[in-house]
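Deviation from plan, reported transparently: flavin mononucleotide complex.
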Amino acid sequence: MEYKELKELMIRNRSYRRFDESKKIDACQLEKLVELCVYCASGRNMQPLKYRTVLSEDECGQVFPLLGWAGYLTEWHGPAEGERPVAYIVQCLDRNLTDNPMCDDGIQLEALTLGAVSLGLGACIIKSFNANKISEVLSLEPGLVPRHVIALGVPAEEVVIEDMKDGDIRYWRSEDGIHHVPKRRLKEILVK
Ligand SMILES: Cc1cc2nc3c(=O)[nH]c(=O)nc-3n(C[C@H](O)[C@H](O)[C@H](O)COP(=O)(O)O)c2cc1C
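Because the crystal trials were delayed, the predicted structure below was used instead.
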């Protein structure tokens, strides 16, 4: 893959929060995404992260109410019926291996979400969730601690990035439903 294609994939790799719920994902696609984590760099090469996939309607229905969506969109309380994620991948730390995943979690989250875009899907990384309840509804074995939830589906919204103005980091949604994400420009993150 050339740089230009990688950059294009990264630009398309936005946080999607509204999906076409009629378009399903299969178990094989979820496994393909998790497989990408096998190839990631890992601090001390410990590889302490494990993944629980969630695909059935029953489990998706139990996970959904435990998630917090788009804190800056105060008037919006998450995707409505018909636009909810059709699958989740729960990233867990195996505390039998270590309590410190270093930055493996972020590296693998990017691999998973880039992989999702490459399969024609969209993803949203979610940190705001009820970890105890997630462990309970998914019957996670003791020692596995959920760290992030990745919501997945075929996107049913347009997300655009734009130059940040006056340091305002808040994403926003315009009247036409487009989700806008301010980003700092290259010259702002390059330290002289
Ligand atoms: C570590 C992390 C935690 C996040 N947690 C949440 C969350 O709990 N709920 C949510 O709706 N979005 C969450 N997001 C998505 C961010 O809001 C999103 O990445 C940010 O607004 C920039 O948008 P972009 O991903 O399209 O660039 C999270 C993203 C990251 C990287």
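Residues 104-118 form the longest helix (15 residues). We consider this an acceptable substitute for the interim report.
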